[in-house]
Amino acid sequence: MSNAISQVRLDKTAFSVVSLTDEPEDEAYWLSKTPQERLNAMELVLQLNSGYGPATAKLQRVVEVVEFERS
Description:
Blueprint: H1 26-31, H2 35-50, H3 54-57
């Protein structure tokens, strides 16, 4: 689950234009999914919105404070 972004492929052929007054079909779509599929989708959205990903998970930020003498 920690690597949801790398498992997703964008379907660039899927495109639709709808009116803002149309009833959304989101609820029926998500109700047709299993609880695990819903959790996976939530994890993906969290990773996309937070900038978390496989590359950033391995990076560490290390701060070292060094005192030096002036000569």
